[in-house]
Structure of 8-amino-7-oxononanoate synthase:
Amino acid sequence: MTEDFFTTYLQQIEQQGNLRKIPSEPAEELIDLSSNDYMSIASNRSFFEEFYNQCDKNGIYMSSSASRLLSQKQKDYDALECLLKDLYKKEILLFNSGYHANTGTISAIAAGNTLIVADKLVHASIIDGITLSRRDFLRFRHNDITHLRTILSKKASEYDRIIVVAESIYSMDGDICDLNSLVALKEEYPNVILYVDEAHGFGVRGKYGLGIAEESGLISQIDIIIGTFGKAAASTGAFTATSATLKKFLTNKARSFIFSTALPPVSCLWTKFVVEKLTGMDKERKQLLDTSEYLNEKFSAYNGNIRSHSQIVPLITGSSNKAVALSKELLKRGYIALPIRKPTVPEGTERIRFSLNAKFRKEQAERLYAEIKDII
């Protein structure tokens, strides 16, 4: 096998400052502002100890040893799905990751005469799901409801179904979609299926941590909600919240569900424990939002028209090399804040993306801002 093509590609992206490497685990304790541990649960040993102490040690299974449809170990999956069903008042189907949930759900439901219309900035897993569906696909300008309305007015009569896809909180810019306007459009066009990915909203927003949909009072009006456990819930896996009919359909058609070994039952046991805790962490959610609002305001002078309103706080550097240099300098000063580069974000909007967490206090944010001003 010749590797010339691959070597040349790697050399090119290294010259552009875009070569990615798996980071080493730091030898010292640093302030981590790049993980998605939004509610500071993954770094809280007391959570683990309480979970472990309450577990029936004889009832813990480390592996499902089969796909969900073939596994004989179902009680932990059922218990987690029942908890989420009670919270969302929707049927729940578990997936192995947010990537699995998006690729499996979208590629399955985009059946027959379907058009998919997605926000320009939706996550790569959504794009991959759309690609796998092999259905017609259009994008509307980011958070531009007028552009989406124009597309629907032109295309609604041509398709049996139109799946409109958005994220509640966008993973790179940290801004929030206008769910009220999306729901209004869905009511105007009865063949629209509204699909909202709450990956960065679940656990963080809403009275019980169910996301922007809960915060907006719109859970019942959204056809499909995707939530993930690998961020605020400090676990692994994801879920689709939808109708009974669509859950049954996905159980039979979502390839990422059917053809994957199911999550370890112990992960579902832990996730259920965490989600029960999350529903009562409104104080921590408010604290996180307050700190986020402070830092977003401070960074606004650097960010042009990008305006975050969440715990995802970008600082635009404008080039990969500048983002890498700033990240290295922050590391020297005790912060893990990794660069986000092309092609993850468009050229010219390279950045440091700060992912804030509940234990990162406003006074720490003030010190961070002072450090950044000193560097740049």
